[in-house]
Structure formats: structure tokens, C-alpha cells
Amino acid sequence: MTTPPNAVAGSVDSQRIAPAALSATRTLYWSIRRELWENRSIYIAPLAVAAVALLGFLIGLMGVSHSKHAQGSPDAAHQQGMIATSYAHAAWVLILTGFIVGVFYSLDALYGERRDRSILFWKSLPVSDRTTVIAKASIPLVVLPAVVFGVTVILHLLMVVLNTGVRLVSGRSVATMWNQLPLFQMELVLLYGLTVMALWHAPLYAWLLLVSGWARRATFLWAVVPLLAISIFERIAFRTSHFASLLQDRLYGFAMEAFSFRTPEGTPIDPHFIPLAQLTPGKFLSTPGLWIGLVVAAAFLAAAVRLRRYREPI
Amino acid sequence: MTVIEARNLRRAFGATVAVDGVDLRVEQGHILGLIGPNGAGKTTVLNAILGLTQYQGELRVLGRDPWAERDQLMLEVAFVADVAVLPRWMRVSQALDYVAGVHPQFDRGKAEGFLAKTTIQRTSKVRELSKGMVAQLHLALLMAIDAKLLVLDEPTLGLDILYRKQFYDSLLNDYFDRSRTILVTTHQVEEIQDVLTDLMFINHGRIVLRCSMEEFESRYLELMVLPEHLAAARALKPIHERQVLGRSILLFDRVGRQQLAALGDVRTPSIADLFVAMMGNPGGAAQGAAQ
Questions:
Q1: What mean pLDDT is predicted for residues B1-27?
Q2: Which of A9, A30, B216, B291 is 20 to 30 Å from the Cα of A300, by its Cα?
Q3: Residue B210 forms part of a structural domain
């Protein structure tokens, strides 16, 4: 045997062990990067939606500036309100886009690699199944919310620039608009909302990832039909709908926990502009549903890690 | 150093037993060919070695349990399961970036060097490459990994003869040195005859033959027998007999060369000839197994 003496082999080993922690974050980093290479819709879809929203906003602005004869009439205030709400609508449509991209990404994440046999290539490299599943789960839970946030902020800034430009050209007050547009506050609320949503939806995405690692075909059906079947079974057998309301709560129940839609005096607030004072992080964090959901998500992801070890190309 | 050690390795899929008690020991510096008909259990053995499938029995690869420690094992083991597993959406530059990112033993410069000898563009996507180019890319990635064990499962399947030749040439010239170990399965047996140092036949999940190539060459002889000596030759108990252009060709195990030379033309059989002899008739297989 022509191997080097033990001393040399030993020093090579110690070099290898030292950056173990470093290499774990390194493999996670590259695993996430490769997800972004493969699934460009993660950033292209929000960008495309933002472009459409911006175009729509511009056309809307033109409409307002053409009807500038109505300036001073009660209609102007109404139109101003409408333009302001379009900032909120733009954010909502991007959040929805992020959610849809996240759902379809998760359904394909552990299925596509088996279908195209590339799982054999990924498994030929020193990346653990756990790192892989964590990287894939971080796309809908971390990367997509961050992308939606970034794109929305940029979109809002562009909208402000356009809005200001159109107002300057049509000779109306820019100050009024700036006063009516609490942009910084809106972005903070958006960031809070995205975080809350990701935490609340974690078990949904984890379930989709689990199905995508398990199903041999038709991942969407496998993800949805069992849930429908349980709901229908419960309704027929027990004439109740606990499971269905559980699912509903999981989809948008976070809103009632994380925000207060009434002022302390009891007046309802405009959901387009939720002031910072109306955020209820304490209530959200003390909701059992949040923690139960996170535990369920962790269990689903752990199952997905185990499954990936057993799974072979389809 | 023992690279692979398996004792009573078993794997069943439902009622089908794919691997039925395989004992295997592969030492450092050997190139072992694992040959067997379709469904013989070759891929299952390789998958067990690579941590891709579960198994019963004892198995250690470079001192590790492959099923429990696949990711750690892959620091020192490289494998090609099939040429068509590189993700089709990936760009060549991305493949280099990614492997360099996750594999500490990957020498990017070396991979670039191999690629420079091909016509593969850095900006191409895998789906745009021909099958042969994908194989070249995969091989370039592999050979730049400083692995102790390289496992190749049908690495040249579907490639034309030029690529196949090139594949094994660069494997031997640019990659293999005596400190590495290579395990290869293929149906194109004749192409690896000169490459191998060791040979193993597997059938119905069991090892049917295990020998070094030197042993193979000294042990098995093929005799193109002169018609008048046919009876005498048959008396020496050939393990296989076939007809080519009206002449009988007999394959012998452990029969002296001088003894046979008197009866006709003697030559060393190809692995393929022995394979057909042993797999083609059950009696022959039994004799081989009874070694």
C-alpha cells in the first residue's frame, strides 16, 4: 500500500474536522442557491406581478390626472383614497403571488428530483437529507417572504415616484399625498404580516413537502384529496365540520390573532392601513394554534427527511 | 486497507430476494468489475454500498455504515449511477459552482482542465448537451473529486463506442492510481476486460465467481477443438461448449494449457465468453459456484 505515513493522514483529518460547522452552513447556502437556480419563478413571478401592478397603477394615475377638472370636488378626496389603497392592493397581490408560488414549489420540491432521476446526482454529494429538506423548506418559509417584501418595497417606492411625478406635472399638491401615505409604517406592517403568515402557514408548506417526497404521481391530488375526504367524512358521519374549520383557520386564522381590526374605542379600522398600534404580536405568540402548528410542521419535515433517505427515482 | 467489507448482505423487495447473502471484500487499489445479467442484484449491491438502499447483514464502506452516514461517506466516495442523472436545467458553470460549494475535496481547476479538452460550453444547460457530452461533464466533475472509492453503475449506457473508449481511457490515465479503488458494473463486458484487476459474477443475488484477472487468465482457457479430437476434449469436462462456423469451442476451467494445445487452438477466453458459459447453463454456474 502506497499511502502516506500516519502523521500526514492525521493532519489531513484534523483539517477536515475543524471547519465542520462552517461546511454545514456552506452546504445549506449552496443548497438554497441551487433551488433558486432551478426554480426561477421564486423571484420572476413576484417581479412580473409587480410590473403588471405598476402598469395598472400608472394607467390609474393617468385617469386621475385627466379628470383634474374635478379637483376640489368631493370626488377628488375619494380618488385620492383609491390611489392610496392601491398601495395596499399591490402588497396583497404580491403576498398572494408568494403564497401560490410557495404552494407549487413545495409540491414539486421533493417530487421533481425523483421524477427526473437527478436525486441520484444530489445524493452522490456530501449533502445530508436533512440539509436538503431544510433548504427546500426555507424557500416558502424564508426566501419567498423576503422576496415578496423586497419586491413590494421597491414597487411602492416606484409608485411614490410616479405618483409624485404625475402630481407635479398636473400641478397638484405633493405634500397632501405624502401626508396621506404612511409608507414606512406600511412596510413595517407588511414585514410583520409576512413573518406572521410564514409561521402560521409553516405546517401547510411542510405538509406539501411531505406529500411531494412521498407521492409517486399527482402530488396535488395527494395533498388535497385526503383533506377533503376527511372533511366530507366528518360532515356525513358526525354532522360536524371541525376539520374543515381547522383548515380554514390554518389558511387565514393568523389575521385575527396577529392584528386587531378595532381600535380600543371599538371603531373598526380600514384594513388597507393598519396602524402599528393595531399589531398584536403578544396575542399571536400566545396563540396555542401557532405553536401546535410549528410542532406539526417540524414533525412533517422530520418525516420528509426520513422519506428522502428511502426514496429512489420514480 | 479494506475499502468495502460486506458479510451476508441481504436485501429483499417483498417476496423477491434481490441480494441473497453476499460476502464481499474489496481492498484499496483494485478495480473490480461486478458482472451479472439483468435483475441479478448488481445495482442493489451498489446502492447498498452507496447508502441509497437499506440492507440486512453487515456492511462497512471506508469504515462507515453507508445507510446511516451517506452524506459523510460521500466526502470520500464518488459515484455515477447512470449518465442521465445530471439535472437538465443546470448550466455547466452552475454544476461546477455547486459541486465546488458543497464538496471540500473537489478541485475545480482539475474539472475545468478536463472540460477544456471537450467542446462543452460553460454557459450550456445540461439539456442542450448530447448524451455523450453529459457523460463527459459528469466524468469531469467526478474525476476532480479526490475520492477513495469510485462506483460506476453502467457508466457508459447508451453512449457510442468512441465515448465509451474515451471514458475508460481517461478513467485509467487521468484518474486511477494505486491508492484509489473502483467498482464498476456494465453490460459492455468486453470493454472493461483490460481495465479490471478483479472480476466478480453475480446471479440471482449470489456471487457466482470471484477472482483476480491474473487468476482468470490462468484458470480459464478456450479451445477451438479440431473435429477429430472432439471426443477427447469433451472427456476433459469443459464447462461450456458452443458452435461457431461449424467448429466446436470448448471452455475449460483449470485444465493445463499443454494438454489442450494438442487438441486444437487454445486462447484466453473473453469475460463475455465465460459469462455466457456460466450464466447460460445452470450446470456450469453450479460448477463455478462450487469452487
A1: 91
A2: A30
A3: no
Q: How far apart (Å, rounded) are the C-alpha atoms in residues A137 and A35?
A: 11
pLDDT at A54 over 90: yes
Residue B209 lies in a domain: no
Residue B127: closest C-alpha in chain A: A116
A253-312 residues touching B, CB cutoff 8 A: 309-310, 312
The predicted model gives A92-100 an average pLDDT of 96
* pLDDT, mean over chain B: 88
DSSP state of A295: H
Where is the domain boundary, B167, B185, B204?
A: B204
Beta carbons of A26 and B101 less than 8 Å apart: yes
A47: Cβ contacts below 8 Å, ≥ 6 apart: A151
Q: Specify if B16 maps to a domain.
A: yes
Q: What was the pLDDT predicted at A170?
A: 80
CB B27 within 8 A of CB B179: no
Say if residue A17's pLDDT is above 60: no
Residues pairing with B199 in the sheet: B33, B211
The candidate with the shortest Cα–Cα distance to B250, out of B237, B258, B240, is: B240
CA distance B279 to chain A (A): 29
- Give the span between the Cα atoms of A168 and A67, in whole angstroms: 15
Q: Using a CB-CB distance cutoff of 8 angstroms, which residues of chain B are in contact with residue A16?
A: 75, 104
The residue of A42, A124, A133, A134 whose CB has the most chain B CBs within 10 angstroms, and thus the best one to mutate to test that interface, is A124
Q: Could you say which of B47, B88, B101 has the minimum Cβ distance to residue A30?
A: B101
Residues B176, B265 within the same domain: no
Contact indicator for A301, A207 with CB cutoff of 8 Å: no
Q: Output the nine-digit C-alpha cell for A164.
A: 409624485
The total number of structural domains in chain B stands at: 2
B245: domain range?
Answer: 215-289
Flag whether residue B64 sits within 8 Å of chain A, measured between CB atoms.
no
Confidence of residue B284 (pLDDT cuts 50, 70, 90): very low
**Overall average pLDDT of the A138-166 stretch:** 94
Residue B134: pLDDT above 50? yes
A-chain CB neighbours of B89 within 8 Å are 37-38
B259-269 tens-digit pLDDT: 888 888 999 89
CA B271 to chain centre: 12
- pTM of the predicted model, to two decimals? 0.87
pLDDT (mean) for A169-182: 78
pLDDT at B87 over 90: yes
The CATH number linked to B134 is 3.40.50.300
Quick one: average pLDDT of A263-267? Answer: 82
Distance CA A39, CA A59 (A): 31
SS3 at position B80: strand
Cβ contact (<8 Å) for A34 and B29? no
The reply to whether residue A34 touches residue B94, judged by beta carbons under 8 angstroms, is: yes
Task: Return mean pLDDT, chain A.
Answer: 86
Cell of B78: 464518488
Interface pTM, i.e. ipTM:
0.87
